[in-house]
Amino acid sequence: MLKSKTFLKKTRAGGVMKIVREHYLRDDIGCGAPGCAACDGAHEGPVLEPQPVDPASSLCPQPHYLLPDTNVLLHQIDVLEDPAIRNVIVLQTVLQEVRNRSAPVYKRIRDVTNNQEKHFYTFTNEHHRETYVEQEQGENANDRNDRAIRVAAKWYNEHLKKMSAENHLQVIFITNDKKNKEKAIEEGIPAFTCEEYVKSLTANPELIDRLACLSEEGNEIESGRIIFSEHLPLSKLQQGIKSGTYLQGTFRASRENYLEATVWVHGDPEEDKEIILQGLKNLNRAVHEDIVAVELLPKNQWVAPSSVVLHDEGQNEDDVEKEEERERTLKTAINEKMLKPTGRVVGIIKRNWRPYCGMLSKSDIKESRRHLFTPADRRIPRIRIETRQASALEGRRIIVAIDGWPRNSRYPNGHFVKNLGDVGDKETETEVLLLEHDVPHQPFSQAVLSFLPKMPWSITEKDMKNREDLRHLCVCSVDPPGCTDIDDALHCRELENGNVEVGVHIADVSHFIRPGNALDQESARRGTTVYLCEKRIDMVPELLSSNLCSLRCNVDRLAFSCIWEMNHNAEILKVRFTKSAINSKASLTYAEAQMRIDSAAMNDDITTSLRGLNKLAKILKKRRIEKGALTLSSPEVRFHMDSETHDPIDLQTKELRETNSMVEEFMLLANISVAKKIHEEFSEHALLRKHPAPPPSNYEILVKAAKSKNLEIKTDTAKSLADSLDRADSRTFPYVNTLLRILATRCMMQAVYFCSGMDNDFHHYGLASPIYTHFTSPIRRYADIIVHRLLAVAIGADCTYPELTDKHKLADLCKNLNFRHKMAQYAQRASVAFHTQLFFKSKGIVSEEGYILFVRKNAIVVLIPKYGLEGTVFFEEKDKPKPRLIYDDEIPSLKIEDTVFHIFDKVKVKIMLDSSNLQHQKIRMSLVEPQIPGISISADNPNMDIDEPERKKKKREK
Amino acid sequence: MAGLELLSDQGYRVDGRRAGELRKIQARMGVFAQADGSAYIEQGNTKALAVVYGPHEIRGSRARALPDRALVNCQYSSATFSTGERKRRPHGDRKSCEMGLQLRQTFEAAILTQLHPRSQIDIYVQVLQADGGTYAACVNAATLAVLDAGIPMRDFVCACSAGFVDNTALADLSHVEEAAGGPQLALALLPASGQIALLEMDARLHEDHLEQVLEAAARAARDVHTLLDRVVRQHVREASILLGD
């Protein structure tokens, strides 16, 4: 069964290296078609359908399989992912080329291959005796691969003919390369371009829009005028970067001005600098987040960053002159000091294009099929797409991918990918904010789901190995109402020796998610569960998150337990970690638990256990605060949803009960105990969480704000900050303490995950703990899963694997987790903001009292405690006369005409929804009290139409 | 550029083998007339030559002689042209000393040394081309050479390497697979009794996976035995024809 053949490969890596590799050719590789007698049973996994009937193509009416080449796979993956395209043969040659050229596409194609319904088959043609081809003299690698693909296609056609002469199964070769197609047809292989084939699918006309338009012939209708200078090839760029003539950096487009961008040059810390690019030609087709090479312009051409706000509104291709005029307007304020290094893009090192969300701006010409697409992100240029369903897509949120940006085109070319739904529709907007914050939210792929345990599931003998049976303990869980992913449960009991045993039981997710498999990789990629106002984007499939891992009451569940023996002063005498099986006796909400503790009539096991926990928690909390842990505040709100329409009907700030802090206290304790343990065992590769102390300058605003209200805040240590915050109280103004705490929160640094071997500062500032990690929520955070694995290895309950003890891999993982956490936070905020908008849309205009949180040069930031809403009141507007503004940085205060605003001043504002820009609706605030003539508006303005852009003029007339 | 995919989703390795398959093995015995025994083996692109002298009187210092058994002296060397880059390898460098010691351990376990007290058996192995699994090739070549010399042994010693990638044990690693940096295990087995003559691993691998990898290496070593046995029988048949009986 083994035919062997050796061949030589030469590669040049610095010097000349001769690499000899063996390459075995086999005769036992199956063709993937079921019922094929020649290679019966040689194939496994998802295979092709015996009778592929459905794609009714006018070009090839017979049943057929598709065989795409590399470029089709790379560029038309959107089409291939469509459920209408099935029965595709993916050659190993093609797959390898894709793997080398684009990791994201490779991942997508693997997901498709794993999906049984798509019937994609990977044929290992390079190792098949009859389809292997050797590189010929004078033939380059690309040509060889093309030939290999054609040979495989030919072999398939002949092979299938042998198998069933009567049903004429065909393999159709799909390539966009003209020459390749001609050669294939010469050799008798039915071949079409992707466009031809997709257009022939009469049953699925909508597929055409998803085609990427990159064919050279497609775009030559453009005016032949060349707008941009050519990008240099990569080799030249690398040479230039090495010699220092070019600089490499990340391109960051400006949000305010489409003609301006900065390039952030990476390098040594002292070399870190930003280069300004101005003007369309100097930007030279770079798109936000691309890695580019820039050339510095001579000093006499340097410019200053302009403060002008410019948005691209041009519909027409030909107004390049107008652009130049605009560019000139940028170069006004010439001040020698303001000038910054300026450059121009000479080439692109790496494109970082992703599919973008946005809206279609329909072309003025009715019949036109070319339209411009405006992305939601202002930093992304508008994209030209070709579609026949423009009228259907108008007013919808859509996704578009960029295909290329030719030199003679003002805008990049792209293709339509997906229609998300109506603008303003809740589901659409949720989808948009998930996409824009890069939150992976697709349903879990088949490959991932295949690693889930089979239902019905129960604990087996094997599961109980290395596991303690704690099912007899009286364990209960306390969570917010409606929580389905319960990852922690507690118990507390008196021991015979008079001490107390307290246990924290955490769902044993790492038992189900084994390292390295698709499920693990997917969870690692997602990093965290994202909670939006009315939706949860799970990190692990629902079967685990809401069922098998969720520590629900009265069912046996696997857990990871941390058990302390404490005395009645809450001093830890002993700590022990074990994998366990538990059976929770009750799932309580915070309110229910509180009620049990408070009501004297209840004296069952659960209640006494809760009381014991509560008592200990109070001692723990007191001790923690004495050590200098901070109690901070942020205005958090919950929406009350209408049960039918799911529209928000009311807001409520979150309520805190004693039981909240009880659960929190034990979670903190467990996290700290685990952090100590894993750091002890794995000093080099423990995953920990730190919270760096903020630099003193961060506190300036807080100290100044307090001083203006005659309060003193000390910030030298966390302890003194906590104490002075506690002392800061004013009898006349009780809310000031909360405001100060909110401000203090803004001064803090971000807490981050890190690998203990890569850092030496472990301190957690906010919790005043020398070491900390996350252990208690493995269902919703991936970091906890890693910590579980580390701990399991430390206590000998589970086995290790190489990645776990690789600190560089761990550091990479931390980077991803930190990024995902940040993005999840932003997405959550965006979701709250959107729901606030919905709320005010239904509510109309309201006047509310609020407090000034910050004073800016031309605006004040106002917090409205009732809604937890923060907004900015601007005093300068484009088409209004500028009021007299005097800003004092020291106090800080802002004097407008004759009124002075300080931080924490009480004001009254009017809140309304500004929907003048459909794509970016926002909450708008305007001042009502104190009244300043010409600036504030009256509280009862009856004929204010919030949707009318003329609003501003009306205001002026009053 | 993504790194090499050592095991594809379809279950093929870089060179087209499946996880448990060996590379092609070709071997010849009695390649040199002057030596008491000699053999040449090719395992894929790894090529090794083994020569055996003895048992004979102790050469050099008599003090080294063992009163109850024979002294097994093993020397390993590799040709300057054995790897992709031409490199002079002096005798007595760390790697070849270590390899010599390992070979010695292996063959002391297999050769019935107590039959030849106060004498010496020399085994010289040279690697002509290295493409992964040099230790295994050396042991297999030396086994054939010792057999060729007619020195009594307990059993064949068959060696094979194994690695661990994507939760699958790979048998008989090639150079590309070794260079990828995963765990790598070398096993020398006495196939008839299933006894282990030598087991070596220098990377970290969890205990729970060890059995799986060991099993793969042992199965491969048994496959090697089948092949070597065939070579020996063929050689004996040819020799007997020449002798004319």
UniProtKB/TrEMBL annotation, chain A:
User: Domain RNB: where?
Assistant: 467-797
Q: Which regions span the lipid bilayer? A: none
Q: Which InterPro entries match?
A: Dis3_CSD2, NA-bd_OB-fold, PIN-like_dom_sf, PIN_dom, RNase_II/R, RNase_II/R_CS, RNR_Ribonuclease, Rrp44_CSD1
Output the superkingdom of the source species. Eukaryota
Biological process terms from the Gene Ontology for this record are: CUT catabolic process; nuclear mRNA surveillance of mRNA 3'-end processing; rRNA catabolic process; rRNA processing
Gene Ontology cellular-component terms for this entry are: cytoplasmic exosome (RNase complex); nuclear exosome (RNase complex); nucleolus; nucleoplasm
Cofactor(s) this protein requires? Mg(2+); Mn(2+)
Any Pfam family hit: Rrp44_CSD1
List UniProt keywords, sorted A-Z: Acetylation, Cytoplasm, Endonuclease, Exonuclease, Exosome, Hydrolase, Magnesium, Manganese, Nuclease, Nucleus, Phosphoprotein, RNA-binding, rRNA processing
Subunit info?
Component of the RNA exosome complex; within the complex interacts with EXOSC4, EXOSC7 and EXOSC9 of the exosome core complex (Exo-9). The catalytically inactive RNA exosome core complex (Exo-9) associates with the catalytic subunit EXOSC10/RRP6. Exo-9 may associate with DIS3 to form the nucleolar exosome complex, or DIS3L to form the cytoplasmic exosome complex. Exo-9 is formed by a hexameric base ring consisting of the heterodimers EXOSC4-EXOSC9, EXOSC5-EXOSC8 and EXOSC6-EXOSC7, and a cap ring consisting of EXOSC1, EXOSC2 and EXOSC3; DIS3 associates with the base ring of Exo-9.
The UniProt similarity line reads:
Belongs to the RNR ribonuclease family.
Question: What's this protein's name?
Answer: Exosome complex exonuclease RRP44
- According to its UniProt entry, this protein's organism is Odobenus rosmarus divergens (Pacific walrus)
- What does the record give as the organism's lineage? Eukaryota, Metazoa, Chordata, Craniata, Vertebrata
From TrEMBL, chain B:
State the source organism's domain of life. Answer: Eukaryota
- Read off the Gene3D superfamilies from this record: GHMP Kinase, N-terminal domain
Q: Which Pfam families match?
A: RNase_PH, RNase_PH_C
List the transmembrane segments.
none
What main location does UniProt list? cytoplasm
Q: Name one GO cellular component term.
A: nucleoplasm
The protein's matches in InterPro entries, at most eight in alphabetical order, are given as: ExoRNase_PH_dom1, ExoRNase_PH_dom2, ExoRNase_PH_dom2_sf, PNPase/RNase_PH_dom_sf, Ribosomal_Su5_D2-typ_SF, RNase_PH
MF (Gene Ontology): RNA binding
What keyword terms does UniProt attach to this protein? Acetylation, Cytoplasm, Exosome, Nucleus, RNA-binding, rRNA processing
Q: Where is the Exoribonuclease phosphorolytic domain?
A: 21-152, 155-219
Is Transferase included in the keywords of this UniProt record? no
Cell compartment(s), UniProt: Cytoplasm; Nucleus, Nucleolus; Nucleus, Nucleoplasm
State whether it acts alone or in a complex, and with which partners, per the record.
Component of the RNA exosome core complex (Exo-9), composed of EXOSC1, EXOSC2, EXOSC3, EXOSC4, EXOSC5, EXOSC6, EXOSC7, EXOSC8 and EXOSC9; within the complex interacts with EXOSC2, EXOSC7 and EXOSC9. The catalytically inactive RNA exosome core complex (Exo-9) associates with the catalytic subunit EXOSC10/RRP6. Exo-9 may associate with DIS3 to form the nucleolar exosome complex, or DIS3L to form the cytoplasmic exosome complex.
Family under the similarity heading:
Belongs to the RNase PH family.
Question: Which PANTHER family would you find in this protein's record?
Answer: EXOSOME COMPLEX COMPONENT, EXOSOME COMPLEX COMPONENT RRP41
The name of this protein is Exosome complex component RRP41
Which species expresses this protein natively?
A: Odobenus rosmarus divergens
Q: What is the lineage of its organism?
A: Eukaryota, Metazoa, Chordata, Craniata, Vertebrata
